[in-house]
Design brief:
The complex is a heterodimer. Chain A has 5 helices and no strands. Chain B has 7 helices and 17 strands. In chain B, strands 4, 6, 7, 8, 10, 11, 12, 13, 14, 15, 16 and 17 form a 12-stranded mixed sheet that branches. Chain B has a 3-stranded antiparallel sheet with strand order 1-2-3, with no helix packed on it. A two-stranded antiparallel ribbon of chain B has the order 5-9. Chain B is flat. The chains are: A mainly alpha, B alpha+beta.
């Protein structure tokens, strides 16, 4: 069982490293949005500019979460192909949510 | 500077130089401490606005300055000192300034005097810097070495009425298909006292960070006494140039209002507007600016001289950003792993 978990654990580490790297920009955006909400005049041009593009934060976290669900499924069942198959429905729902978020950004 | 103004800034008791004291809202002698209120002429109306007709006769004519104007050799800024020149450095970029004989600018109509003292503004700037997420560890120490200057910055206020017609599109999902729909409408927007920086040194973003509660009813008629002890930048932009500088901001605000009117986010927006009732003021607003450099890059923190709201430029620590990104990634990944392991959808 321990041997079976090594590959998902390594995949989790790789996903964490990749997620951290691609999250550099969204994290900076998160700080800009937080500062805009606390410090800029609501509804002003500066506020709208700083807040615009916030959906990149949600897209990044959703992508990392999605990778995690596959790894979790794989670790629990030991069946990578099955985990990928089961992830398709989740992916379609996520894409619908992502499209809605991008539209409302 | 005209001799009349120069003598007005001299203390009637001891003949010393007076400077404006924000805590008393009065001119205070730097030698004997004697304070006196600034007197305005009858009929001075700070709230007065001027009509602007882009195609009308040229009433927006610059006048030759009689004040001593210092030109910055680094950023090109022009700064006026009422009374004695306080500094040989530019209030914006800390570069060296040189005195020039005369300068063409536009007449300032009103101002709001400083209401905060330097000490409080300095504390506000330090507090703002310490509250930054993912800031380099040595940032507060670098800002500590910075220099603070109080300056009156030129702004326009613009009023206008926009009669708009707009057309836009949005998408909806129906039966796994994306359908594009059109929307159109007409509306009217009244912009009242839209504050526009007339200086390249205050960006619209900094304006929106520090001037939350600009109230035109607190404007006072222009009087050089308010400038004594501070630097002030002259109005150099024509109204047409001020309107052009504000065009991007106005476009963004109009698009935002159109989406509010349509009741949804729109993928594309076109609009036509008929602008009327264009009125303006040229005013000065007080700010404290802290100049500092980080990694050789000049930056500034601006504190509003009215209420103390603070905003500015700041560097990020790459390692701290990466650590925050890793922490958020770990949380999302952990949640995902638990989700997948439990066999949820």
């Amino acid at each position: 069982m321990q041997v079976d978990l090594i590959a998902p654990a390594l995949a989790a580490l790789a996903a964490l490293a990749f997620g951290s790297l691609i999250g550099y920009g969204p994290t900076r955006k998160l700080i800009a949005v937080k500062e805009a909400h606390h410090e800029l005049k609501r509804g002003s041009a500066g506020f709208l500019r700083q807040v615009g593009g916030w959906s990149v934060i949600a897209l990044w976290l959703m992508a990392v979460w999605f990778a995690g669900t596959i790894i979790g499924d794989w670790g629990a069942t030991g069946d990578l192909a099955g985990a990928l198959d089961r992830a398709w429905l989740r992916l379609r729902i996520l894409l619908e949510i992502a499209a809605a978020l991008a539209d409302s950004d | 500077m005209p001799e009349a103004v120069q003598s007005e800034l001299q203390c009637p008791s001891c003949g010393g130089q007076c400077a404006f004291d924000p805590s008393q809202g009065a001119l205070r002698c730097t030698s004997c401490g004697n304070a006196r209120k600034i007197e305005h002429l009858d009929g001075d109306d700070a709230a007065q606005e001027l009509d602007y007709c882009p195609k009308g006769p040229g009433t927006d004519v610059p006048v030759l300055a009689k004040a001593r104007t210092h030109h910055c050799q680094t950023c090109g800024g022009a700064v006026v000192f009422a009374g004695q020149a306080l500094s040989e450095r530019c209030a914006y970029c800390d570069g060296p300034v040189v005195l020039s004989e005369g300068d063409e600018g536009y007449r300032t109509m009103a101002l709001i005097p400083f209401q905060l003292r330097e000490g409080f503004a300095w504390e506000q700037a330090q507090r703002w810097i310490k509250g930054r997420w993912a800031a380099p560890n040595d940032l507060a120490a670098e800002v500590e070495k910075g220099r603070m200057a109080g300056i009156y910055v030129p702004f326009f206020t613009f009023d206008s009425r926009e009669a708009l017609q707009y057309w836009g599109t949005y998408t909806v999902r129906r039966n796994k298909k994306t359908i594009t729909r059109r929307v159109s409408g007409s509306m009217q927007i009244d912009f009242d006292d839209l504050l526009v920086p007339a200086s390249p040194h205050i960006t619209p973003l900094i304006r929106d960070g520090v001037l939350h509660d600009f109230r035109p009813d607190t404007l006072r008629p222009y009087h050089p006494g308010y400038l004594a002890g501070f630097a002030a930048e002259r109005h150099h932009l024509s109204v047409a140039a001020g309107l052009a500088a504000n065009a991007d901001d106005k476009d963004l605000l109009i698009r935002n209002r159109i989406e509010g009117h349509a009741g949804r986010k729109l993928a594309s927006i076109r609009y036509q507007t008929d602008t009327s009732g264009l009125r303006y003021r040229r005013i000065l607003l007080p700010v404290w600016i802290v100049h500092y450099t980080y990694d050789g890059k000049p930056m500034k923190v601006v504190v509003c001289g009215l209420r103390g709201q603070t905003y500015g430029e700041r560097p990020f620590s790459g390692m701290k950003l990466l650590a925050m990104s890793a922490a958020l990634s770990a949380a999302a990944l952990g949640l995902g792993i638990a989700w997948g392991a439990l066999g949820l959808l």
